[in-house]
Design brief:
This protein is an all-alpha fold. The chain has 20 helices and 2 strands. It has a single domain, classed as Growth Hormone, Chain: A. Strands 1-2 form a two-stranded antiparallel ribbon. Strand 1 and strand 2 form a beta hairpin. The longest helix is centred in the last third of the chain and has 31 residues.
């Protein structure tokens, strides 16, 4: 019986795997772009630090607020059509961010990227929810999150060569190319998923949002997990400038940020399987306990430099700056916490979704990052 259940937990339809491939492309595009967004807005477009914080902050907040509403559109027009619209917008937005660098036009094309990215989240996670069963849903979301981090790792690995080699603005063309590849897959290979009788009005979305806000366990859990993401998103909001300004232009903050998805790729499936019989809330609690250790480690870098000087020998094999060493340790611990929190949080929300409302509910699962 257990052997049959184990085999069943690995059975997913083609659309599940294809959705994950498209997610890998989209995440490589997004994280390659987002890790240098604040640098791009300051160094290329000409916003000052405070203006950059406002632009990037509003972009990011809305990116996580819009998905429930565009998720309703995705349910109505069908997942295939929704993916085509999403990747078309992303390709256009990224491409023209590489072409035009005036403040007004950059805002316009950021909005296009914002709308396209908002489509992706409920459509891809909704596809994972629809193409997995009660038997393999936990494994499905752990595999999905594994793929997300492979994409994030790939994008941030490629970007430093582009940024330091041919120019920061050319990172946008890399993101456009990855989005275009996903668009081709959506058009030529991805088959429509049945969404009959699932069209939602915006009033339905608002009612669902009201239902979540009036369900204490859902909204409280969302707010608690938002604390994790406040720290996590500093990898993109402040860390790149922090590292470059302290270590110099030759620094590669993208590679430091890559420690996070590397740890997740290595450990997320194993941790999810190890704790699959535990309640999702229990696994998330473990991650939240681990998270403060991450922040403490990164905060210790300058104290370590006062003790060791500007160089730390790692077993005599190579030399690291104390800031680099403590960022690697802190970000690694952060990735470990994420293994406990994120896939189980997605699983928890997927299980709350009434049948036919997967797209809407999985959009709401990202409200933690809006907060």
């Amino acid at each position: 019986m257990d052997e049959n259940l184990n085999k069943e937990s690995w059975k997913f339809p083609k659309e599940f795997w294809l959705a994950n491939v498209m997610e890998l492309c989209e995440r490589a595009a997004y994280y390659g772009f987002f890790i240098v967004l604040t640098l791009y807005l300051t160094d290329i477009v000409g916003f000052n630090d405070k203006e950059t914080g406002v632009v990037a902050g509003v972009f990011f907040a809305l990116l996580y607020f819009f998905p429930p509403f565009v998720g309703a559109i995705g349910d109505k027009i069908g997942f295939k059509n929704g993916l085509i619209v999403a990747f078309s917008l992303l390709t256009i937005g990224y491409f023209f961010l590489g072409v035009f660098h005036s403040k007004v036009l950059v805002i316009v094309f950021l909005v296009i990227v914002l709308i396209g990215g908002s489509f992706i989240k409920p459509l891809i996670t909704g596809t994972v929810a629809k193409t997995s069963s009660e038997v393999n849903k936990a494994r499905g979301f752990s595999l999905f999150y594994w793929v997300v981090n492979i994409g994030a790792f790939t994008g941030k690995t490629v970007v430093p060569s582009i940024r330091q080699g041919i120019g920061l603005e050319y990172v946008n063309f890399f993101s456009a190319a990855m989005s275009f590849l996903a668009l081709i897959l959506a058009i030529l290979i991805f088959k429509p998923i049945d969404t009959s009788h699932e069209g939602k009005k915006f009033s339905d979305v608002l009612n669902a949002l009201k239902a979540i806000f009036t369900t204490p366990r859902l909204i409280i859990l969302t707010l608690i997990v938002a604390g994790f993401w406040i720290i996590q998103h500093q990898l993109y909001a402040t860390m790149p400038k922090y590292v470059i300004r302290l270590l110099g232009e030759e620094a590669k903050p993208e590679w430091l940020a890559n420690v996070n998805p590397l740890v997740v790729v290595i450990f997320v499936v194993g941790i999810t399987q190890l704790f699959k019989k535990k309640k999702a809330v229990t696994a998330m609690l473990i991650g939240m306990v681990i998270m403060p250790i991450s922040g403490l480690a990164m905060a210790f870098s300058q104290s370590l430099e006062a003790i060791t000087g500007p160089e730390v020998s790692i077993l005599g094999w190579f030399i690291l700056h104390p800031l680099t060493l403590m960022m690697i340790i802190g970000i690694g611990i952060q990735g470990l916490a994420e293994c406990f929190i994120s896939p189980r949080f997605l699983e928890y929300f997927a299980l709350q979704a009434p049948k036919g409302e997967e797209g809407v509910y999985m959009g709401f699962s990202h409200l933690h990052s809006f907060f």
